[in-house]
Amino acid sequence: MTTRAYAAARRTLTLVDKLYEINWGLVLLISLIACVGLYGTMPYTVARRTGEIGIRMALGAEQSRVLRMVLREVAILIGIGLAIGLGAAVATTRFVESFLYGMKPNDPWTLSLAAVALAVVAALCEENPATE
Predict the structure, then answer these.
(1) Using CB atoms within 10 A of its CB, is residue 123 exposed (0-12), middle (13-18) or buried (19+)?
(2) Which residues of 10-23 are buried (b: 16+ CB within 10 A; e: fewer)?
(3) Which helix (H) or strand (E) holds 104?
(4) Which of 9, 42, 89, 132 is surrounded by the most beta carbons within 10 Å?
(5) What is the pLDDT along the chain (132 residues), one digit of tens a residue?
(6) Per the structure, how many domains does the chain have?
């Protein structure tokens, strides 16, 4: 390999590495935006039912039953959202495949990590409004 070819190959690798880092940065940014959206949406689901929860408590409902009711509703919303999101992710892999570098289109670790992260964030943001 000549010096010129070696230098060109090195520049190409450096560019690919930088694009790889930019892609990970974008993935983290998109994940952060999704988590912030969940943080705003999930407490809203409880806040809109504040009157109903107050009436239930006034009529003698136990706090644990009301908490279970709210958390069950949130779990259903999380499940529906994850099912739609994972379905859309799997369905669009042909389109996205050309953008992925160093990953398989249906990488199970990536899909499961994203699903778990969003479910954990949704559950954590729901705990505080539900207990109030």
Answers:
(1) middle
(2) eeeeeeeeeeeeee
(3) none
(4) 42
(5) 567 666 665 666 676 667 667 777 777 788 788 778 877 777 787 788 888 888 988 999 888 898 888 888 888 888 898 899 888 888 887 777 776 666 676 777 877 888 888 788 777 777 666 666
(6) 1
